[in-house]
Specification:
The chain is mainly alpha-helical. The chain has a domain of 93 residues. It contains 13 helices and no strands. Helix 2 packs antiparallel against helix 3, helix 9 runs antiparallel to helix 10 and helix 10 packs parallel to helix 13. It is globular, with a radius of gyration of 18 Å. Keywords: Aminopeptidase, Hydrolase, Protease. Pfam families: ERAP1_C. Belongs to the peptidase M1 family. GO terms for molecular function: metalloaminopeptidase activity; peptide binding; zinc ion binding. This is PSA aminopeptidase.
Length: 230
């Protein structure tokens, strides 16, 4: 109804607040997705910072309950929920989440304590969103060193979280490099397009500037339609 303009988005946010004690992953996944759409729309307004505060308020209690480490008897959905919540809090700039993500990332890079697969994406996205050129360089180094394609893809999907314009350009250039498999280039560009307002503009310009190469590469297949969609 809010999307159709029948009711105010404020009413939707009030309903979302009522889910603060919700334990179910599927519900949080839906809330996260809808808040993501709202964040994207509000990134073009003065309310962007306020929606980030709202995200932190809604997701903090469940984040504190779940913590960073698995508890005995947890199921697969709890692990998924932890990754979802920590990623959401980290991207929104939740102070304690950001500090812990940086600490764990440092240990991971130095080989002191390797991050579990469930925590890698939320940690990567958090440190990139609030990172600098050194952060991006470290991530690209991890990509180069990764033995498994799964880890390379995981890194490729989150690189677009970086915020500074010149680093966004570096990620887009990386997308077309030999470091990235042709079928995975779209994931990198899509990550940039979904990462920020600056990223969307940069990705759109990049696709137009490199249209011939991209079109020839995918020859009207499903990847070109996915690229256009993102």
């Amino acid at each position: 109804q809010a999307r159709a303009g029948i009711i105010s988005t404020v009413e939707v946010l009030k309903v979302m607040e009522a889910f603060v004690n919700e334990p179910n992953y599927t519900v949080w996944s839906d809330l996260s997705c809808n808040l993501g759409i709202l964040s994207t729309l509000l990134s073009h307004t003065d309310f962007y910072e306020e929606i980030q505060v709202f995200v932190k308020d809604v997701f903090s209690p469940i984040g504190e309950r779940l913590g960073w480490d698995p508890k005995p008897g947890e199921g697969h959905l709890d692990a998924l929920l932890r990754g979802l919540v920590l990623g959401k809090l980290g991207k929104a700039g939740h102070k304690a989440t950001l500090e812990e993500a940086r600490r764990r990332f440092k240990d991971h890079v130095e080989g002191k304590h390797i991050l579990s697969a469930d925590l890698r994406s939320p940690v990567y996205v958090t440190i990139l969103k609030h990172g600098d050129s050194a952060t991006l360089d470290t991530m690209l180094k991890l990509h180069k060193q990764a033995d498994m394609q799964e880890e390379k893809n995981r890194i490729e999907r989150v690189l677009g979280a970086i915020s500074q314009p010149e680093l966004i350009q570096k990620v887009l250039t990386f997308a077309l490099s030999e470091e990235v498999r042709p079928q995975d280039t779209v994931s990198v560009i899509g990550g940039v397009a979904g990462g920020s307002k600056q990223g969307r503009k940069a990705a759109w310009k990049f696709v137009r500037d490199n249209w011939e190469e991209l079109y020839n590469r995918y020859q009207g297949g499903f990847l070109i339609s996915r690229l256009i969609k993102v």
